[in-house]
């Protein structure tokens, strides 16, 4: 009797979960996520994702990723930054579903051509190499969305930043959304008020904004991304008065008023390939490279400015908040269960047979 009860109980529980997953995650591509109406994201676990998701199906996933990352970063340290940024640009556009990796195709308008991405996001060859190795080790098992997340986490750690327990189990979209990429990715000249709104749209708060902006402790930006600050900050033909003077002069000599838009400058001029808290120290000194960096300090929001100061003084606090915020970002609106697919090639959707 007890065993029959157990079986019935198991069937009840299983059907409950089945109905639950149908109710909360309607299957099929297209209408699964617009970004605005997902449930609030906290530190609570996301149904369908777990840190040991590949324990039985691909226990060697992380060991497969690590050596490829190490080699790529040793060859070019900036690759770590580029891969971390890919997670951001993936997750802010219809959730962390590897939509950012899709190339133009008959049914796909690639996000790679959206304004914030074009001639800017990079690291796709490294993702391809990692995915090929994962396919070799565990065919059709590890999604491209999880590959992006593993690459971002590994890149952070290899650059000297914190490690975090990474929930896995995301699946890959069969769609991309270039318009949503233009709408949801914040521009570098955004005001603080607008930055807060861009993050809130993703269920992220002010702490997340300040902590995740600390990703700019590694990597570079093109002149075109901060030129307005040098020559025409308030449409007045004058520089941004919050730029520290000597920093302004170095930037202006690297980025003339006309031309040179593709030249790059480090986001953190002290330690451009080390994931540390020097970004915040620079922001306090008027040496944040992007407008979106400097306004965290100058934007007259006491909570935000207070966090910048705290992270500048206490790297351990920055790392602690970063781990929590980057986990939240990585959990934005994933495809789970039977939604989406496990792409074989991250650049295109699987062909139906
Ligand atoms: C707060 C709003 C943000 C804005 C406005 C912003 C904007 C930018 C811009 C304009 C660049 C330079 C692109 C170029 O010139 O080609 C950049 C680079 C970068 N961003 Fe952000 N970003 C923001 C938040 C984030 C977040 C949340 C992350 C990661 C979690 C991130 C990671 C990076 C990294 C690592 C780079 C360097 C990439 C490389 O060197 O290839 N950013 N960002
Ligand atoms: C930011 O730059 C864009 C493109 O150059 C421009 O259209 C927009 O007005 C700028 N925004 C602000 C607040 O300066």
Automatic annotation (TrEMBL):
Gene3D superfamilies from the xrefs?
Answer: 1.10.520.10, Peroxidase, domain 2
Q: Which Pfam families match?
A: peroxidase
**Protein EC:** 1.11.1.7
Location of the Plant heme peroxidase family profile domain: 48-350
Ligand binding (heme b): 216
Cofactor, free-text remark: Binds 1 heme b (iron(II)-protoporphyrin IX) group per subunit. Binds 2 calcium ions per subunit.
- Provide the gene name from the record: LOC103636702
Q: Which organism is it from?
A: Zea mays (Maize)
Task: Tell me which family the UniProt entry assigns to this protein.
Answer: Belongs to the peroxidase family. Ascorbate peroxidase subfamily.
- Which residues of the sequence carry a binding annotation for Ca(2+) 1? 90, 93, 95, 97, 99, 111
Residues that coordinate or bind Ca(2+) 2: 217, 268, 276
Example GO BP: response to oxidative stress
User: Can you name this protein?
Assistant: Peroxidase
């Amino acid at each position: 009797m007890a065993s029959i009860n157990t079986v019935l109980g198991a069937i009840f529980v299983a059907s409950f979960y089945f109905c639950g997953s149908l109710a909360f995650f309607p299957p099929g591509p297209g209408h699964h996520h617009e970004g605005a109406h997902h449930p609030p994201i906290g530190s609570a676990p996301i149904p369908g994702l777990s840190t040991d998701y590949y324990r039985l199906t691909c226990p060697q996933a992380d060991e497969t990723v690590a050596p490829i990352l190490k080699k790529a970063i040793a060859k070019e340290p900036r690759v770590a930054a580029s891969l971390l940024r890919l997670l951001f640009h993936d997750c802010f556009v219809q959730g962390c579903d590897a939509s950012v990796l899709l190339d133009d195709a008959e049914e796909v308008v690639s996000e790679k051509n959206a304004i914030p991405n074009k001639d800017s996001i990079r690291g796709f060859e490294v993702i391809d190499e990692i995915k090929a190795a994962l396919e070799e080790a565990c065919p059709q098992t590890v999604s491209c969305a999880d590959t992006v997340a593993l690459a971002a986490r590994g890149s952070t750690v290899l650059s000297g930043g914190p490690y975090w327990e990474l929930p896995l189990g995301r699946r890959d979209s069969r769609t991309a959304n270039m318009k949503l990429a233009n709408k949801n990715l914040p521009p570098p000249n955004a005001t603080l008020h607008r930055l807060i709104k861009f993050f809130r749209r993703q269920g992220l708060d002010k702490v997340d904004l300040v902590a995740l902006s600390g990703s700019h402790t590694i990597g570079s930006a093109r002149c075109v991304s901060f030129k307005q600050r040098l020559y025409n900050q308030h449409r007045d033909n004058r520089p941004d008065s919050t730029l520290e003077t000597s920093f302004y002069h170095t930037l202006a000599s690297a980025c003339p008023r006309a031309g040179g838009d593709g030249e790059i400058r480090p986001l953190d001029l002290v330690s451009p390939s080390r994931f540390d808290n020097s970004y915040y120290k620079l922001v306090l000194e008027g040496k944040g490279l992007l407008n979106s960096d400097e306004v965290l300090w100058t934007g007259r929001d006491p909570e935000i400015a207070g966090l910048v100061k705290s992270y500048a003084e206490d790297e351990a606090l920055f790392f602690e908040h970063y781990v929590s915020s980057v986990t939240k970002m990585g959990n934005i609106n994933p495809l789970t269960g039977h939604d989406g697919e496990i792409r074989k090639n991250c650049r295109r959707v699987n062909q139906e047979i």
